Amino acid sequence: AEALHLLGAVRLQRFKHAIRNDCDGDSEDEGETSSCSPEVTVAVSLLRCAISSLPASTSTGERGRQLATLGISLLSQARRECDFEEAAVTLREACRLDPHRFSACFGLARAAAQLRAIASRQDREEDEASYERERIVALRNAHRLRADHPGVLYRLGTAIKEDHPQEAIQLLERYIELASGSSRAADDEVAQNTKRVVKWKVAAVQHWLAVLRGERSTTAPAEYVAGLFDS
């Protein structure tokens, strides 16, 4: 089971690496682009086999770890609502079994965001609200595990800005601090590697900070408008 899991995980990482090399805009902050890549298809098959091969004595943490990897793989190739729902179901179970696994929490937030967007386009208001609540809970759990993760800070800050404006301000201010630190350390090799992975959305965050503080702000920047339904 472990060998199958490792083979599946390696294929998934190979796919993610190719995505980053080919499309500079695809990043950890933005989420991977859905694609029916042969690498991901094989990864999903291997990971399913790995999970089905787990002995009954397998710990909940180990089972959760493998389900998290499968859920991320399913999310990476999802295109239809049923695909995103399968990914969400898998990631929910991973979170239940291993609530301290960041990839499961953040992956569930991304899956819920996609399902929310689909429900919104179909005017299913109750489903949209339900998925948004699930997304926020998942983001809060992810933030508890990695307080300075840029994607979590951005998503959670913009998600709760209406109901919890003061908390949103703190999250978005921290995002700006991290972005500024990355810019100042641009000559540092580690920072350069980080900047390749994180696509900072400083203009959008500065806009919402101005709105939340009651300051005058220009029209929302294009990068925010274009990414209203970012996963």
Characterise the protein shown here:
The protein has 231 residues and is an all-alpha fold. The protein has helices at residues 2-22, 38-52, 60-77, 81-97, 102-121, 125-145, 150-159, 165-184, 189-197, 202-212, 222-225. The longest helix is centred in the N-terminal third of the chain and has 21 residues, at 2-22.
Lay out the secondary structure.
Blueprint: H1 2-22, H2 38-52, H3 60-77, H4 81-97, H5 102-121, H6 125-145, H7 150-159, H8 165-184, H9 189-197, H10 202-212, H11 222-225
Helix pairs in contact: 1-2, 1-3, 2-3, 3-4, 3-5, 4-5, 5-6, 6-7, 7-8, 8-10
What integer value in Å does the Rg equal?
18 Å
SS strand fraction: under 5%
Report, as a whole number of angstroms, the end-to-end distance: 30 Å
Shape summary: globular
Major beta-sheet overview: none
- Provide the structure class: mainly alpha
Order of helices and strands: HHHHHHHHHHH
Q: Please provide the count of β strands.
A: 0
Question: Counting H and I runs of at least 4 residues, what is the number of helices?
Answer: 11
Low-confidence stretches: 15-33
- Mean pLDDT value: 80
The portion of residues assigned to helices is over 70%
Key phrases:
mainly alpha, single chain, 72% helix, 231 residues, 0% strand
Task: Provide a quick synopsis of the model.
Helices cover 72% and strands 0% of the residues.
